[in-house]
Specification:
The chain is mostly helical. The chain contains twelve helices and no strands.
């Protein structure tokens, strides 16, 4: 790994996070991956430091993924998620792990953010952490903000707004974003789950 410029400290981190690199033929595959990112049709081009940042931030990319898998994922970004070249570079730099996520899960989250939250592809691209968040969490928080009147159907939500919705801590989201208590937010979530269960039971009865 050092032959492509990955520093010893970073090598140790990569091995710790993805032990599979010890059995992977990195002397062959790693230079190919570096070249792939360097030649990638994005604007502006990836610098070498940026490429090494991507690979060391998500060591699984070194251990378990191929250039072909990267190509397919980028194609998915362009064709299915409507991201342009600039978006794609930003997403990969901010959240390299998106290259390992399932297309189906990413598409579901993108669709919800685009159709229900009213976020543009550009806004989603600037907040790629949304793909790391569960769809359930995104829905619960969005519906809660709508319930409180903080979000209206006609509102456009930008990347800052998306970032608030997917705030890591439930407590922080409830108190800082929704301006309510965590207990009140938890109660709302229980009500949602209860309503879903009732709907499912009703559907099952109708099918019978």
């Amino acid at each position: 790994m050092e032959n492509v410029g990955i520093y010893p400290d970073s090598v140790a981190y990569v091995i710790k996070e993805a032990p599979g690199v010890l059995t992977a033929k990195t002397e062959e595959s790693l230079p190919e991956k570096v070249k792939y990112f360097a030649d990638m049709n994005v604007k502006p081009k990836f610098t070498k430091d940026e490429i090494l940042h991507v690979l060391t931030k998500c060591p699984t990319l070194i251990a378990s993924y191929t250039v072909e898998s990267f190509q397919k994922k980028v194609q998915f970004f362009e064709q299915e998620l409507k991201f342009n070249k600039h978006h794609i570079k930003n997403i990969i730099l901010k959240q390299p792990s998106v290259l390992t996520f399932s297309n189906e899960a990413m598409k579901e989250k993108w669709t919800y953010c685009y159709e229900k939250i009213n976020a543009s592809p550009s806004s989603i691209a600037r907040c790629p952490r949304v793909f790391q968040c569960s769809l359930k969490r995104i829905k619960e928080r969005h519906l809660y903000l709508k319930h409180l009147g903080h979000i209206k159907d006609e509102m456009k939500i930008d990347d800052y707004g998306l970032g608030l919705i997917i705030t890591n801590s439930d407590k922080r989201f409830a108190e800082k974003v929704a301006k309510m208590s965590l207990d009140e937010f938890d109660e709302f979530r229980k009500d949602i789950d209860l309503n879903k269960n009732e709907e499912n039971e009703e559907n099952e009865e109708n099918e019978q």
